[in-house]
Every structure is written in C-alpha cells, then in structure tokens.
Design brief:
Chain B: Keywords: ATP-binding, Nucleotide-binding, Transport. Chain B: This is Mannitol/sorbitol ABC transporter permease. Chain B: It holds the Pfam family ABC_tran. Chain B: It comes from Asaia krungthepensis NRIC 0535. Chain B: Belongs to the ABC transporter superfamily. The complex is a heterodimer. Chain A is mostly helical. Chain A has one domain: MetI-like (MetI-like fold), CATH 1.10.3720. Chain A is built from 14 helices and no strands. In chain A, helix 1 packs across helix 13. The mean pLDDT of chain A is 88. Chain B is of the alpha+beta class. Chain B folds into 2 domains: 229 residues, P-loop containing nucleotide triphosphate hydrolases (Rossmann fold); 118 residues, Nucleic acid-binding proteins (OB fold (Dihydrolipoamide Acetyltransferase, E2P), Beta Barrel). In chain B, 23% of the residues lie in helices and 34% in strands. Chain B is built from 8 helices and 20 strands. A 6-stranded mixed β-sheet of chain B has the order 6-7-8-3-9-10, sandwiched between helices. A 5-stranded antiparallel β-sheet of chain B has the order 13-12-11-14-20. The model of chain B has no long low-confidence stretch (mean pLDDT 92). The chains are: A mainly alpha, B alpha+beta. At the A-B interface, helix 8 and helix 9 of A face strand 6 and helix 2 of B.
C-alpha cells in the first residue's frame, strides 16, 4: 500500500517535469520547424504543423550572407574571451579561496553585483571608450567586453571549485618544494580540472549567445552570429523562415557542443550541491 | 641529521595568542611527541616548524640556523599529513617522485631511490596505482614513503594514524617506531592519543592552551607529573584524585588525612607545606589494592572486565567515584563493599595551585 501512495506524487512530478521541459524546448523546436517552411507557411494562422519541408530558406540565407565569416568571428571571440577570463580568474579565485582576507567575501559579492546592472546602462560610456581606443567592430574589442562581463561568474565558479580542493594537498606541494606557479599548475589545476572545464564551457556558451554588445559594438568585420541572425530581421517583407533558418544555423554548433559536454556541464553546475 | 630549537615561539591570530611562548630543544635522532587535548596548539606548533604557518615571534633554529623566514622545502623537513594529502591525480610512483623532481634530482637516481623506499614499505607492487585505488593503510605508507625519499633532516607527523582503524593503528605504530630506529632521523610527531605518545616517544611534550605543561620521557611524565593537568592527561584509565587535608609534616613525607579514611604518609618533599592545608592526592588505578584492612572503604558500582585485568569503579562514602585496577580473575560484583589500600609510595600530592610536590624517590625508569 505504501508504495502505491508514493507512486502518485512520483507520476505527478514526472508530468510536471516533462511539461516544463517541453515548455522550455518548444521555442527551439518551433524555430527549427519554421526554418524548413516557406515564408508563406511561416506566417500562416493558425500555424501549420503539417507542411512540405523545404531548404529554400537555407539556400537564401547562404546566398545572402557569409555564414562562415560570422561563425569564425564568434568562435574566435568566444575562445579569446574565455581564455582571457580564465587567465585572470584562476589567480583571482586561487587567492580568494586559499588566502582569504577580511574583504574577500565583500569583493566576491561586489563582483557579482556588477552583473545586476543592465548592460544598456553603460552602453554610452562603453561605446565611447571602444571608439576612442579603436576597438569598435574588432574581435578584440567584443572579446574584451565579453571577458569582463563574464569574469565575475567565472571567478565565482572557480572559487567554489577551488574551495573543494583539500588544502593539505596544496600544503604537501609546498612541503615538496613547489613554488606558487607549480602549486597552481601541477597540483591545483589538475585537481580542479572538471570544474575549470565546466566553467570554460559555460563561458563559451554565454559568449556565443551574447547579443547586446555584439549588435552595438560590431557592424561587419567582427560581427558574430548574433549579428548574422539580426541581419535577417527586416522592417518589410517576409523573413520569418529565413530568420529561423539563420537562428538554427547560429545555435547549432553550440547546441551540439553542449550536448556532447552536458554531463560535464551538469556535474560542474551542481558541484558541491550534490556531493 | 638535525637538532631543532624553539626559542620563545609565539603565534598570534587576530590579536589572540594561541602559542604563548614555547621554548624547546629537540635533539638529533630524537623522537618527540607533541600531545594535548584538541585546541592546545600542538598542530599549529608543528605547522610553524614546517613553515606552513608564520611564526609571530621567537626564533626557530634548525642545526643552529634561524629558519623563520625560509620556505618549507628549503628547511630540510618532510611532513606526513593526517589526511595523507597524496596527489590524487598522480600514481604512487609520481607521488613520491614529485618532490625529488622539483629538487632537480636526475631521473636514474630518482628511480633507484623510489624503488628502494617502495620495497621497504611493501609498496613495490602498487607503484602504478592511483591513491584512490589504495586502502587507508597503503595510502598512509605512500605518504610516509613520499617523506622518506626526500631524505629529510627532520620528519614531521601530524596525527598520521587517526584516520586508521584500531588494528591498523597498532600495526603502523610499530612500523613507525621501527622505521625511526632504522632511519635515526629527528622526528616530531603530533597526536592527541596518549597511547601513541607513550609507546613511541623518546620525549613527550604536553601542551595545553598554547603552553608547554611538561617535557619529559614517557615514564617520567607517568610517574612524576609536574601538575594536575599532566597527571590527568597521561595514563589510561586516568589517575584518581581525592581531596585531603595535611595532618603533619615528617621526614618520611607528608601525612594527609582522607575525608573518609585513615591517614596516609606520602613520601614527598614538604617544601612550605603547612598543617591543615587542603591538597589533592593523586593515585593511579593500578596503585590501589583490595584489602579489607585498607584506609578507605567503598562500594563497587561497575565492573569492567578487560580479560587480562579488571577495572572496578568504586563509589566512596562521599559519592566520589574512583577506578581500581585489579587482576583479570577478580570476582568483584556490583554493589559489594570493598576495602582499599593506597600504595603510599605511588601517591602524588598536588598543592592548591595544582602543582605536584617533588617525590623523595624517583622512579627507577623515569630517568
């Protein structure tokens, strides 16, 4: 009897879980579906679920814009921003995790608070700085702004992972004669590798999907995939199918990447919570 | 090999002094154990010697050279941590090799050395294993091996056996003692387990609240504790304490009266003891014998049979409980009345400040 009474809430939870998952997934599903429709099918009401799939939108997209140019920019920018953020974040998180001072806690909170500011609030100063330093429409410029906006999250994540590394292991390294750099590179980093990998992964995804700065700080040379998508949104004419096709193309690589690394990502994001 | 000297070493954390001026000489080849209750500062003191904690004041000398500001690896020490602290991503061989590699030892020499040590520690068939694949005892051996290969002047052990089960702890205790006899390296060993301290040490340092209470050989501490704290801390089951009043001072010692029982003459130097002074008499469980004509009488409250010996928990008329050790075949029963005789020559007397009065005769093994 006891098992039966437990079964009901279990089923209910399952139903809720699936409903939420489908709710989240639906826009992506609809986007992919729309990409294979004709422009007419794409705007029809009520929407057609059964239609003749066509690759016309993809043909148009490839004919109109250089997809690989945007992808290349995005990859380069994401890798640059993530690498740079790790380079700054690892020493920062190391010192905060293992040599905390009176203000460490406050510094961490302050760093996070910078994420609470809507980016548009600093659009004008950032734009002006980028213009006067000739970083407008450059991969470096966009990379730097992505690096800086993601740095707080990266430091926070690394800090939590480093906190999980037993201090005596680092001390054993010190007793064995490791200097600071060897202690970090040979002892700490290999131990925190899963955490660092998921941090890097998250940063890559955030950079890849970032749109606000991409649209405001780049035009053509350094335009990433966010601009690629935006270029198919026009004030007149039918563009839903092309827009969907472009969006599908833009998110496909990171989606596949995320799919393959989901185990690592989930482990990283729930690290400590489930331990 | 090396001599370690501590000169008024102090440690201050957030304006609070945790180590309050420790001075100590640790001789070459000596096995010294720091023992004390948790929070007494013994681990902090060890970590200061290791160089993992800064020394707030005082001097630390190794072979006569001040090393306060020298980094850990350059002090010529090796440390074995309580949690073993092996590098989990390296195999046993790499764990032992790491320090040698950093010290710039050439590869053939390293291999020779590690293989030698692995053999003596029976680790030779595990060299390719990662720490995660080893049992607690094996991990402990790797940690010790990692310390030995570096050929340190001084070995530091921070409660190395506390994560092992009782049987393995006993075995490792013997192995460590044997190892020390063979390597003859100066060793500083921290533990809260007084059995480890008693069995392994050449010299025990009893610490309490950042202060050295007494330094001496195990039997010196056992038979001639300097104060109540050491008397209570060393020995298991612990020493019994009874309140007494001084009756008279004679050349054979001080005659004291128990609250309920006949007077006892304790053979100690009287010093400035005055008649009618209140004191504490200390006596170990094995120094009380069952005797119907004894000074005190009591009632057995509990019988603990350990096989080789029996511990009787006896309630005195005033309600105080004392422990009496008797032979394993003793047929004591709960609620039975017993007469007890205190072996006066083994009694200790502590004054009102808790300091022991010097005994007239030193124990022949106490050094």
């Amino acid at each position: 009897m006891a098992r039966k009474t437990q079964l009901l809430p279990k089923i209910a939870l399952g139903v809720v879980g699936w409903a939420v998952a489908l709710w989240i997934f639906f826009p992506i599903f609809w986007m992919v579906l729309t990409g294979f429709k004709t422009e007419m099918d794409a705007i029809s009401t009520p929407p057609h679920l059964i239609f003749h799939p066509t690759l016309q939108s993809y043909h148009d997209v490839f004919a109109q814009e250089n997809y690989w140019h945007f992808t290349f920019n995005t990859v380069l920018m994401s890798v640059f921003a993530t690498g740079g953020a790790l380079l700054l974040g690892v020493p920062a998180a190391y010192s905060m995790a293992f040599f905390p001072g009176k203000r460490t806690r406050g510094t961490l909170l302050w760093m996070l608070s910078t994420r609470m500011l809507p980016p548009v609030g600093v659009l004008v100063p950032v734009y002006l700085i980028a213009r006067s330093t000739h970083l407008l429409d450059t991969i470096i410029g966009l990379g730097i702004i992505n690096l800086l906006t993601n740095l707080p999250i990266i430091v926070w994540m690394l800090y939590t992972f480093f906190k999980e590394v037993p201090v005596p292991i680092l001390e054993a390294g010190r007793m064995d004669g490791a200097n600071r750099w060897q202690e970090i590179s040979v002892v700490l980093l290999p131990l925190a590798l899963p955490g660092i990998a998921s941090t890097a992964l998250l940063s890559l995804i955030l950079c890849w999907n970032e749109a606000f700065w991409s649209l405001n700080l780049t035009s053509s040379n350094a335009a990433p995939l966010a601009s690629f998508i935006a270029s198919f949104s026009s004030p007149e004419g039918l563009f839903f199918a092309k827009l969907s096709a472009a969006s599908t193309l833009a998110v496909a690589p990171i989606l596949v990447f995320g799919w393959f690394s989901q185990k690592q990502l989930v482990r990283g994001l729930t690290f400590g919570a489930v331990k | 090999m090396a001599k370690v000297e501590l000169r008024d070493i102090r440690k201050t954390y957030h304006a609070e002094e945790i180590i309050k001026g420790v001075s100590l000489d640790i001789n070459d080849e000596e096995f010294v154990v720091f023992v004390g209750p948790s929070g007494c500062g013994k681990s902090t003191l060890l970590r200061m010697i290791a160089g993992l904690e800064e020394i707030s004041a005082g001097d630390l000398l190794i072979d006569g050279k001040r090393v306060n500001d020298i980094e850990p690896a350059k002090r010529g020490l090796a440390m074995v941590f309580q949690s073993y602290a092996l590098y989990p991503h390296m195999n046993v061989y790499q764990n032992m090799e790491f320090g040698l590699k950093l010290a710039g030892m050439p590869e053939p020499e390293r291999r020779q050395k590690i293989n030698d040590v692995a053999k003596t520690l029976q680790l030779d068939s595990y060299l390719k294993h990662k720490p995660g694949q080893l049992s607690g005892g094996q991990r402990q051996r790797v940690a010790i091996g990692r310390a030995i290969v570096r050929n340190p002047k001084v070995f530091l052990f921070d409660e190395p056996l506390s994560n092992l089960d009782a049987a393995l702890r006993g075995q490792m205790r013997v192995e460590l003692a044997t190892l020390h006899r063979r390597l003859k390296a100066t060793t500083i060993y921290v533990t809260h387990d007084q059995v480890e301290a008693m069995t392994m040490a050449d010299k025990i340092v009893v610490l309490q609240k950042g202060v050295v209470e007494q330094v001496g050989s195990p039997l010196e501490l056992y038979h001639h504790p300097r104060n109540l704290f050491v008397a209570r801390f060393i020995g298991s089951p612990p020493m019994n304490f009874l309140p007494v009043t001084v009756r008279s001072v004679t050349e054979n010692g001080i005659v004291v009266a128990l609250d309920h029982g006949a007077p006892v003459t304790v053979p100690v130097l009287p010093g400035e003891t005055a008649s009618a002074e209140a004191m504490t008499l200390g006596i170990r469980p094995e120094h009380i014998v069952l005797d119907p004509q004894g000074e005190i009488t009591g009632t057995i409250r509990m019988v603990e049979r350990l096989g080789a010996l029996t511990l009787l928990h006896v309630a005195l008329p005033d309600g105080a409980l004392i422990i009496v050790q008797t032979d394993g075949d003793h047929g004591g029963e709960v609620d039975a009345p017993v007469g007890l005789r205190l072996l006066a020559e083994n009694c200790h007397l502590f004054d009102a400040r808790g300091m022991a009065l010097t005994k007239l005769v030193r124990h022949r093994l106490a050094g």
